[in-house]
Amino acid sequence: MALYESIFIIHPSTSDDDVNAIIGRVREIIAKPGGNVVHVENWGRKKLAYEVKKQRKGNYVLLNYEGGSGVVQELERNFRLMDSVLKFMTIKVDPRIGIPPPPTPSVEGEMPAAPAVEDAPRSEAAVS
Known about the structure:
Layout: E1 2-10, H1 16-31, E2 36-52, E3 55-67, H2 69-81, E4 85-92
Antiparallel strand pairs: 1-3, 1-4, 2-3
């Protein structure tokens, strides 16, 4: 089974209970053909980068799951049928990368700084 990541945006007027119901329905859609939900994050209501279906805000949900291509096809078919879903996108996660663990807040309640990324060696051009 491959690892997939889907993010979908739900209409901003949808109540929190209805958002949770949609997430539950999505979990059922993934489990029915043999998929497995690994991680779900509800990011809440955020401003969209551009207007989508006359909406400027939306409820963002991130979903990581395992399954075959049939799981992805069925999930995206259901996203298209759900009136409350404004937009969605699914990508296949590289198995070497996996799913990063969620950041843990520090004692002060602030998010920790991102770890330093090592840069590849750079070739320096001669300046004349």
